[in-house]
Amino acid sequence: MNNEQSQKYVGKVYLVGAGPGDPGLMTLKGKGILECADVVVYDALVSPQILLMINPQAEKIDAGKRMGRHSLLQEETTQLLIEKAKTQAVVVRLKGGDPFVFGRGGEEMEDLVKAGVSVEVVPGITSGIAAPAYAGIPVTHRGYSSSVTFVTGHEGAGKYRPAVNWQAIAHGSETIVVYMGIHNLSHIVGELSSAGLSQQTPVALIRWGTTPQQEELIGTLETIVAQVEATGFSAPAIAAIGNVVNLHGILAKGEK
Ligand SMILES: C[S@@+](CC[C@H](N)C(=O)[O-])C[C@H]1O[C@@H](n2cnc3c(N)ncnc32)[C@H](O)[C@@H]1O
Question: Same domain for 221 and 141?
């Protein structure tokens, strides 16, 4: 950063992960920053109890994404953070889960760094681990899975480069965790099946994981698409695929 750039800004931007929903899963560091924030720009999936942690004097701005306006809003949001850093000391960008896991945090941080704004990331607990965990599904297990892949199910329209290589993923690890996969589920199931995964491979869908509204749908590659159609199961949900899903029947009984 050159001198001219640093003089433009009095503040610092914190990219903070709010975790998957349960307010108890917010990090202490993230909570401390929310308590002394001057401005908080937050996303749609951040739970209301976490918004209550924000300094009551802070300006709160809902940057909730709207379908069809994704890229424009992204630019607007980054520009807003840059503007706020000119006059406010503690500017928080609050994102669901972890900011760097399918959260565009990397892109936002890159733009802020390029603009000469001081910026720090505060990781959060990602839904791809926490939602299965609250459903009694450990993403690795010494008896069932020595590896896990986190993948986007929303790869369409050239949004993700490189595009998802489902063939490689089907054979690359024992557990596959898919974010944003519900709308595209039949395509994903088709790709994994044609890559040779058994039709009996267990699949769990967990929606609103770690919140009081958490719901699960358990099936197999063969059955899950029909189950979604029959029940109307909808986003936001994580899909966990692999033999670790069988532990749901044992571990979900743990909490009494
Ligand atoms: C844009 S991605 C953001 C992921 C986030 N950065 C993270 O680390 O969890 C949004 C997707 O995350 C998943 N997701 C986020 N919160 C969730 C929750 N509480 N339960 C289930 N899935 C969730 C869903 O797949 C949703 O479509």
Answer: yes
